[in-house]
Amino acid sequence: MAKTKTVAPVEKKWKLYEGIGFTPDADASHGEWAPAHHWVVLMQSMHSGTTVFGPFVSEDAAHKWVREEADSEMYNHFSRSSVPGVSFHVDYLDIPTRRNV
């Protein structure tokens, strides 16, 4: 009888896309009043509304994500890499920290 080999399972390690995260304690120009700036990517579609990706720790990281990943996200949603009426926008993430009483 032939011996069967046992194959070790492949271990997957999840890694966030570079620039994604939430770092409110990072250096900010007005750190005493508000957390560090963060950004999000909005995929706006006349077909299915708005989808939000992020948060990103910098505006550059958000724009890089749009350049490198937007087509694949569009393909995941619509099974096509180019869809009329779909656009991506980088916008500031407003983080409420306190309210005036």
Tell me what the structure shows.
The chain is an alpha+beta fold. The protein has a domain at 39-92. The protein is 20% helix and 22% strand. It has one helix and three strands. It has one helix spanning 59-78, and strands spanning 39-45, 49-56, 86-92. A three-stranded antiparallel beta sheet has the order 2-1-3, covered by helices on one side. Strand 1 (39-45) and strand 2 (49-56) form a beta hairpin. It is flat, with a radius of gyration of 20 Å. It starts with 38 loop residues before the first strand and ends in a 9-residue tail after the last strand. The mean pLDDT is 83.
Question: Can you summarize this structure?
Answer:
The chain has a three-stranded antiparallel beta sheet with strand order 2-1-3, with helices on one face.
Q: What is the count of β-strands?
A: 3
- Tell me the major beta sheet: 3 strands, antiparallel
Q: How many DSSP helices?
A: 1
Overall mean pLDDT = 83
Oligomeric state, counting identical vs distinct chains:
single chain
**Contiguous runs where pLDDT drops below 50 for at least 5 residues:** none
Fill in the keyword field for this structure.
3-stranded antiparallel beta sheet; 101 residues; alpha+beta; 3 strands; 1 helix
